[in-house]
């Protein structure tokens, strides 16, 4: 297979399919989604068989348990995938919303209306459910989608993509609105990133840091996503200790592998003297390793010395780093220097200081007295998300249906011409 | 001067200045603007002298008249620049707007708030007023700005930048919020585009196609802007002839050099038989050259044959191309193939057909019975604009203050943790 020809063909078909999908009604789009949920349920045995093949290959290659867990599809997981498709069908259509309207003195009526983005490329690994989640969010927002999954879940992804495509055909819509790249050749990814500017409007990477970094480095096509989730919690002098312990425990340990997990704790010096050992004890009781700066080690000698790299490390594990700061501005400075712009939280009973933190910390999500693990579109009431963005353009924070649209201006006149 | 060191230093100072500017109140930002307007008026003789130097050099190099006209600053133009600064001070602050708010069942209060983008790079040529327009729009939206003007207006730009910087210092704000690149070495542009990803959040090019193409090809930093304005008018069978003639005349000839000028006319075959000669006569009476396809030439032998390249040419001159189409879908197909996604207009007395055109043409601006020359932020009631974008991400159509912001989510809790 010549990758260039194969991918160009996919690209051309996507652009064509996208132009048809753009004009589908909400009802037609939801019908496709319902049909996809039905077909996934109907095909569950085929999907499980394909998945078993991937799991067997992964085990033979000696894949680690967390990877195997992300990979496995059982009846229960497939039912959850089907249910999440139905849930997205229930969400309001993000297309056709009037974002702004005005009538000009010359009588021109101007409407700013949300429209689909066009063609979206998804490059992902490990979790086969992304095949469905991404397809369905794209269809709901009127976008064609090119899916490139990882080789470790190739058979599972392909079986899910086939279910999706046959559901689309049953709905009498161009099946090319969703195209799965049927090769594990890495040249296909490089080609998508560098050479498909005319066919793909935006690429969304889903996966580990290695994948995202490659996407960001190579891409000529615009990318929405995030590389690191180096999230901070700052404990202010005014913090309630029980609240602090409870939030830090949850933010670090509820799930250590997600991007919203906290990695670094910043604590006011004064507050640390009395309270740091209690916070550390709680974490160590749950087998969390604690690394800290020299000042923190003077207060609690159970702390292991942190290296300079620790401040910019996303552990994604039961490890946390601790640093003492003079005040809220010390915390803000540290976050500006080492943060990744994802999510930061302040624990404080002083609202004035909390507001200063919320105002000055320039991350996608800033929180007061809440766990950073709430960083999730669903938890924000925004519906399903395709990821979290830490870039500053187009979409920031949870990337849901709205981020998969753009807009156009519709101007209605009655013969107006512009004067000199 | 080592360009890398010089530009890195500018970049670092911009990021620092940006973090201070982000937290300035509306009142403080407007005070800077008023002070800039005052200083520009006070410095008008210095600015005119600097400009005379540029004009002299341009004449010596044999620059064409339109270029000289764009370059010249007289007392009247300087007064208009100062007035436009004051007008931007009057506009509402785009920062701090609540874009979405919700209270979750668990009591979390979620606010999505507009915030400044950060550091904006402007790469421009010819028109020295861009130095002021861009600076002032950036300050109003809380952004630091790095200005790189063309060598042909170097002295004018520098004198305006000096007026801006001294007004900022008088306002006791970090003058580095606006930095003018004081070299005409082209390596500085290349460095901005490729190597300042960590210092510049977005680059906005202002100038001719050569400049914009270079920016789009080289940039690793995200770019907002447009390359071509190949705008179309489609005349439907139901069009009122007087309206059609009046709008086409205005859309082509009011100003031929702007991106919103129409370049191609698409006309229903039936309609053309009776009416094309009248439309052509009106254009030819105003010395407009008309190039057309074979079908149009059969109807009117004054039409010169169009080549295939004509359909994708932005003339920016008194030239128009004409093509006959079967119906509205023929027009939509032609626009999808050759358009640049800028602005297209339908002339029609049939609202159903007009709505089909407005729905299916996927350009930043679509119009009904109005001149494409209205494609302008000011004409849309959006206030001053920094350009028009034809990309699909972040900003589309007129790029005003809103496009110079992003947002963050502020989450207020009372100790909430996320359950398993």
Structure description:
- The structure is a homodimer of 420-residue chains.
- Chain A is an alpha/beta fold and 420 residues long.
- The first copy, chain A, folds into two domains: 3-224 and 399-411, Aldehyde Dehydrogenase, Chain A, domain 1; 231-374, Aldehyde Dehydrogenase, Chain A, domain 2 (3-Layer(aba) Sandwich).
- The first copy, chain A, has 14 helices and 16 strands.
- Chain A has helices spanning 3-21, 26-42, 44-60, 65-71, 75-90, 129-140, 154-170, 186-195, 209-218, 241-253, 269-285, 294-299, 328-338, 351-360, and strands at residues 98-103, 109-116, 119-124, 144-148, 178-180, 202-206, 231-235, 262-268, 289-292, 304-305, 319-325, 343-347, 365-370, 388-389, 397-398, 405-416.
- Chain A has a seven-stranded parallel sheet with strand order 10-9-11-8-7-12-13, sandwiched between helices. Chain A has a four-stranded parallel sheet with strand order 5-4-3-6, with helices on both faces.
- In chain A, strand 4, helix 7 and strand 5 (178-180) form a beta-alpha-beta unit.
- In chain A, helix 5 packs parallel to helix 6.
- The longest helix of chain A is centred in the first third of the chain and has 19 residues, at 3-21.
- The model of chain A has no long low-confidence stretch (mean pLDDT 96).
In one word, what is the shape of chain A?
globular
The name of the CATH superfamily of the largest domain in chain A reads Aldehyde Dehydrogenase, Chain A, domain 1
Count of extended strands of chain A: 16
Counting DSSP H or I runs of 4 or more residues, the number of helices of chain A is 14
Largest interface in this structure: A-B, 63 and 63 residues
CATH architecture of the largest domain in chain A, by name, is 3-Layer(aba) Sandwich
Oligomeric composition of the shown chains? homodimer
Q: Which stretches of chain A of 5+ consecutive residues score pLDDT under 50?
A: none
Widest sheet: strand ordering of chain A = 10-9-11-8-7-12-13
- Main pleated sheet of chain A: 7 strands, parallel
At the third CATH level, what is the topology name of the largest domain in chain A?
Aldehyde Dehydrogenase, Chain A, domain 1
Computed structural class of chain A: alpha/beta
CATH structural class of the largest domain in chain A: Alpha Beta
């Amino acid at each position: 297979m010549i990758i260039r020809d194969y991918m160009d063909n996919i690209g051309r078909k996507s652009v064509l399919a996208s132009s048809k999908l753009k004009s589908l009604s909400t009802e037609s789009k939801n019908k496709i989604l319902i049909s996809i949920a039905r077909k996934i349920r109907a095909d569950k045995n085929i999907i499980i068989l394909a998945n078993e093949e991937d799991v067997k290959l992964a085990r033979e290659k000696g894949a680690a348990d967390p990877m195997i867990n992300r990979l496995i599809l059982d009846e229960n997981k497939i039912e959850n995938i089907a249910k999440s498709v139905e849930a997205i069908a229930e969400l309001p259509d993000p297309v056709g919303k009037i974002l702004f309207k005005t009538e000009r003195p010359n009588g021109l009526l101007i409407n700013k209306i949300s429209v689909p983005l066009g063609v979206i490329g998804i490059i992902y690994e490990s979790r086969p459910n992304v095949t469905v989640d991404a397809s369905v969010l794209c269809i709901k927002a009127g976008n064609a989608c090119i899916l490139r999954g990882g080789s470790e879940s190739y058979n599972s992804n392909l079986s899910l993509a086939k279910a999706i495509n046959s559901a689309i055909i049953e709905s009498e819509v161009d099946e090319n609105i969703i195209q799965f790249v049927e090769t594990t050749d890495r040249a296909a990814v490089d080609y998508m990133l560098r050479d498909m500017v005319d066919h793909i409007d935006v690429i969304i990477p889903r996966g580990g840091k290695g994948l995202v970094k490659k996407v960001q480095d190579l891409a000529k096509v615009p990318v929405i996503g995030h590389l690191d989730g180096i999230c901070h919690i700052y404990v202010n002098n005014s913090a309630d200790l029980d609240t602090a312990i409870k939030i830090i425990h949850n933010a670090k340990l509820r799930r250590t592998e997600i991007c919203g997990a906290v990695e670094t704790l910043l604590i006011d010096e004064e507050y640390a003297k009395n309270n740091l050992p209690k916070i550390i004890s709680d974490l160590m009781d749950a087998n969390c390793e604690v690394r800290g700066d020299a000042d923190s080690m003077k207060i609690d000698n159970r702390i292991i010395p942190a290296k300079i790299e620790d401040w910019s490390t996303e552990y994604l594990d039961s490890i946390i780093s601790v640093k003492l700061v003079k005040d809220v501005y010390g915390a803000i400075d540290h976050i500006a220097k080492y943060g990744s712009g994802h999510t930061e939280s302040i624990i404080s009973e002083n609202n004035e200081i909390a507001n200063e933190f919320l105002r000055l910390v320039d991350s996608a999500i800033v929180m007061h007295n809440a766990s950073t693990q709430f960083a999730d579109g669903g938890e924000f009431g925004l519906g399903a998300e395709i990821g979290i963005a830490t870039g500053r353009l187009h979409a920031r924070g949870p990337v849901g249906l709205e981020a998969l649209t753009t807009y156009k201006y519709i101007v209605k006149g009655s013969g107006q011409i512009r004067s000199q």
